[in-house]
Structures are given as C-alpha cells and as structure tokens.
Design goal:
This protein is α+β, with helices and mostly antiparallel strands. It is built from seven helices and 30 strands. The protein has a five-stranded parallel β-sheet with strand order 18-15-19-20-21, with helices on both faces. A hairpin with a 2-residue loop joins strand 5 and strand 6. Helix 2 packs across helix 7, helix 3 runs parallel beside helix 5 and helix 5 crosses helix 6. The longest helix has 20 residues. It holds the Pfam family Stig1. InterPro entries: SGNH_hydro_sf, Stig-like. Keywords: Signal.
Length: 566
C-alpha cells in the first residue's frame, strides 16, 4: 500500500512545536515521557522554578515569591501547610513565620518558652523571658512587686524590715557599715555596751556563791565591782563575780559572757559593761525614778559616758535587766504592769538625756516564781509582768519563768542558778539588741474550746513543744488547770501535744460555768520552795538548741499564765 505524504498543515505544526512539553530526546534520539515538566514540581514535591531573561521567576507557572505545591501556588514563607517547603505543615496553634513554624504573638507580647507572654504582667517572665517572681509575688510594669507585710518596706523588688535589715536600715538603701547591726532602724556602732541591772535581792546575787571568777572575754565592770554603787567609779576592770559576805553571783557574768561567746562564733566582738544597782527586799516604789537606787543607776551611766570618752571608745546603754517582783507580791500591788511600763520609760528618757544616744533602752525581766514561799498559793505578779511585755512588745521582754532553776532557800538562786538565769537574759538580749529581731517567750497566743476539748496555741521560740518530766517534776496535768465560776469545773482527763505549737486539754465534761480559764504553773502549795521539784511549775518547753557555756539546758519554758477561754 502506498505511503501517503503528510498533509502540509501537519508538517507546519510539527516544526512549530519542536521539542514539545512532555517529550525529550535522549542520547539514543528516542522520545522519553512521564518526567516532570521543566519549571514544575519535582517527583519529591519540592517546587522547581525556571529562570528567565529578566522576567520574574516562576514555580510551576506561579509568580514569585510563590511556589507550586500539589498543583497550587503557595507562599512558603507564610503558609502553615507548606512552611519552608511543600507538605511541611506547622503544628496546631503555630504560624509560619519566614519559613519557620512558631508562635505568632500580638502587640505587647513576646514568645517565651513557646508561648506568648506579656513581660509587664507575667510573674513567670517578669521584665524578661525566664525572669520569675517569687511565689505569690505580682508582676507589675515588668517588676516583681510583693505585697509586703505590716512593718515591712518595699525596697526594689523585695520586702524588707527596715528595723533590722543592715542593707536597708531605717529606709531603703541605707546600708550599715560593716560589723554594725541594724537595731530598731538604727545602725549600732557601739564598742562598749552598758547593761544596767536592777531589782531586789535576786538582782544582787543574795545567797548565790560565786561560780564566775574569771573573765574569758573583754567584758568589764566598774573598778568597784558588779555591785558598783554610785561613787568612786574611776575605771574598768575585767567582769568577774565577787562575794561580799552575803551576796555573790549575779546574772551579769552569765549574760555578758554568753553573748560574747555566741558573737565570737560569728566572727564578731560584743563587749559589755555590766553594773548592778538594785537593793534587796525593796518594791518598785523604793526603786523607781526619784529614789536613791535609781539615782545610783544614773550615776553609773554618767561614769560610763566619761570613762568611755576618755578611752576613745563609743558607748551606749543598751538595756536594763530587772530581777524583781517578790516585794510587790507581798504588798499586793495591783498596778505592777503599769509600774513596769513607767520604769522602762523613765530609764530610757533619762539615759538618753545623759548619753545623747538615740538607741532605745529596753527592759528585760524574768517572772517571779517563788510566791509559795511567802505562804501564797497564787500570785498576780507573773501575770502583770507578762501584761507589761504585751503592752510594749518593742520595749519590755520577759525572758522566762524561774521555776526551772535551783534555789538556795526557795526564794534565792544558787550560784549556778543565777549564772544560768543570766544566760537566759543573754538569749533575749542578743535576739533583740544584736539581731534586731522580736522576742517572745513561750506563752499562749490563742485559746479555743470545742465541747469538752480546749486547745491552747503557743508562741514557740523554737518548735516543737515538749512535755518534759525529766527536768521538771510533774505537778499534775503537766501544770495545766481548767477553772470556771461553777465551783465544780470539769477535771482535765488528758493533756496532749496537738502539733508543734499547740496543747490539747480534754475535760471530763463540757463546762457550763462562766469565766472559763486555763492556768499553767499558776498554783502551788503554800510554804513550798520554788524550783523544778516543788512550788508552782509546769512541764512544757520548746526545743531551743542554744548552747550554754556551762552545760545548762537553755530550752524556753512556758511562762506562768492565767488566761480566759473565749
């Protein structure tokens, strides 16, 4: 069959098409089909583009900067389904930003840890990514701003107590010089700290044999001794106790030497001048401002100022230590708390006038514990002492009761007892006047009753509470009593610790009488000696580990108290 020549029009079309799309001439000259078209997507889904001669690049026929993916033109820089390449989707909630999957934040927010945050308000990223505020502290305007407690000040981003913060003493950025503690908002640059001691016979060491005959530190007395008097005060000598035939160990050495030792352990020195001016057997009325003993104390202050100045040593009266109360018990003084408040206030005003100091002059005292030796079952005085401290918690401090100490005659302490008591004064003195911190004895702070169960919550210097019958003999119910006006108050059937700071009293029945009260170490048998085995006492103490210089335990024992049950 003859072959017909192609139609002329077909030849024209074939020549015009040349190497048409979808065909290729291989090295054998034969056609190849099935491959991608130039400028179209590759077999792997990556876009391809053909360059031009000055014309915009295209990808599969898509104008730049778009590219062809799955037959569609897409923006690989911003398409979350094809981010940086075809079929590269971003995760839920993420945007495609410059070819990378990420979080898209609005104005005022930035990305921190993969989330949009407001650096002005976010407490986990306050002012910068990862800059977290303390728990409970708000982020305001990019700064951590805590809600400061009463008595605190906001300095920068921290709450501080300007009364005892050495970096912010009395105000923000008011830094104390090195070695000067901040006490009551004032930097204390004192070299010689005067401790005035007053009261009656327990303050002068009556009956207490001397047990502190050496001075291990730099503490001093006047040249006339601890019981210095008001005349002939011409110099200082090492602080040691002396016996004058009836008086010996005072609280001075126990207090001064323990403070010095504890501060030495911190790498600091604390030098105390101790002088006593009390008189045995005298009530407040015979010791207050306007009396000879009070004037003697001020004479000791005057001598301290002059001698320290002559030596070029900075000086201040730091405190008055009182050991007192027995004579006011005998006299039935119903206003003893007010007397203590006036006593402290008078000392502070007169001392400041003599020394020019602005530092306060707080009063430290111990509770009377020996009223049974005066024929009484109870006494008002310990409660008055506690009331004065509660009325002025910044000026009057109860260091504790005295029922734990050894007595010579039921009223006066032994030499060890007096030195031991002095170490209790040291603990409170150091906390208040060296550390600049509040001091509270182990005392009740809240009492509640539900049915036949009374719970007493305590301010505990060093939890947990302990009921100790080894150091103090149990007087019954560990010293606790429950009373009311019925005349037949239900008995206590159990006394138990209810946590680190509470004691639970279980009564035999629900009380029905009025004026319900909880009492502790408040009752003793008339005629009995004070002390840990007889007299008014109790078994409740804390767990204070403060070391004694002489092997005494320095636990804080619960104060004598008689408190209402709401």
């Amino acid at each position: 069959m003859p072959v017909r020549a192609p139609h002329p029009l077909v030849l024209v079309l074939l020549c015009a098409c040349g190497g048409g799309a979808g065909t290729n001439t291989g090295g054998t000259g034969g056609p190849t089909t099935g491959g991608p078209s130039p400028g179209g997507p590759t077999a792997t889904g990556e876009p391809t583009s053909t360059g031009g001669t000055g014309e915009p690049a295209t990808s599969g026929g898509c104008p730049a900067p778009l590219a062809a993916c799955a037959g569609a033109c897409v923006d690989l820089d911003h398409d979350p389904a094809h981010c940086g390449g075809c079929d590269r989707p971003c995760g839920p909630g993420l945007a495609c930003l410059e070819g990378q999957c990420g979080v898209a934040c609005g104005d005022g927010s930035v990305v921190c840890d993969g989330a949009c945050v407001d650096l002005d308000l976010d407490p986990a990223h306050c002012g910068g990514c990862g800059r977290a505020c303390d728990p409970g502290v708000a982020c305001i305007a990019g700064a951590c701003v805590p809600d400061c407690a009463a008595g605190q000040a906001l300095c920068g981003e921290a709450c501080v107590d300007p009364s005892n913060d050495e970096a912010h003493c009395g105000g923000c950025e008011a830094t104390c010089p090195a070695g000067q503690p901040c006490v009551h908002g004032e930097c204390v640059g004192v070299g010689l700290h005067h401790l005035l001691i007053s009261g009656q016979s327990l303050s002068t060491g009556s009956g207490a044999l001397v047990v502190s005959a050496e001075q291990p530190y730099q503490n001093v007395s006047f040249n006339t001794g601890v019981r210095a008097g008001g005349a002939g005060l011409t110099g200082f000598i090492p602080l040691v106790e002396t016996w004058n035939g009836s008086e010996g160990e005072t609280i001075a050495s126990g207090a001064a030497n323990l403070v010095a030792e504890l501060e030495q352990a911190r790498g600091r020195a604390h030098r105390i001048l101790a002088s006593a001016h009390g008189v045995g057997g005298q009530p407040y009325a015979a010791l207050k401002k306007g009396t000879v003993p009070y004037a003697t104390g001020l004479a000791q202050v005057t001598a301290g100022v002059m001698l320290a100045a002559a030596m070029g040593e900075s000086y201040a009266v730091r405190a008055v230590a009182i050991v007192h109360g027995e004579s006011d018990h005998l006299g039935g003084n119903l206003a003893y708390a007010e007397d203590l408040l006036a006593w402290q206030s008078d000392y502070e005003a007169d001392v400041r006038a003599l020394t020019g100091q602005t530092l306060p002059v707080p009063m430290f005292l111990c509770q009377m514990s020996s009223w049974t030796m005066y024929g009484s079952a109870v006494s008002r005085i310990p409660g008055e002492q506690l009331a004065a401290a509660r009325a002025r918690p910044d000026r009057i401090f109860v260091v504790g009761p005295k029922y734990i100490f050894p007595y010579v005659d039921g009223v006066h302490l032994t030499g060890d007892g007096s030195r031991w008591l002095g170490e209790y004064y040291a603990k409170a003195y150091r906390r208040v006047l060296v550390d600049g911190l509040p001091w509270q004895p182990l005392a009740p702070r809240a009492i509640t009753r539900e049915g036949a169960v009374v719970t007493v919550d305590f301010a505990v210097p060093t939890p947990p509470l302990v009921l100790d019958t080894a150091l103090v003999v149990d007087p019954g119910n560990f010293g606790f009593e429950f009373t009311d006006s019925s005349g037949a108050a239900p008995a206590i059937t159990e006394v138990a610790l209810a946590g680190d700071t509470s004691v639970r009293l279980t009564l035999a029945a629900v009380p029905v009488g009025g004026n319900q009260r909880v009492r502790y170490a408040a009752t003793g048998a008339p005629g009995q000696s004070a002390g840990p085995t007889t007299g008014a006492r109790g078994n409740l103490r804390d767990s204070d580990p403060t070391p004694s210089r002489h092997g005494y335990t320095l636990y804080n024992w619960a104060v004598h108290f008689d408190e209402p049950v709401p």
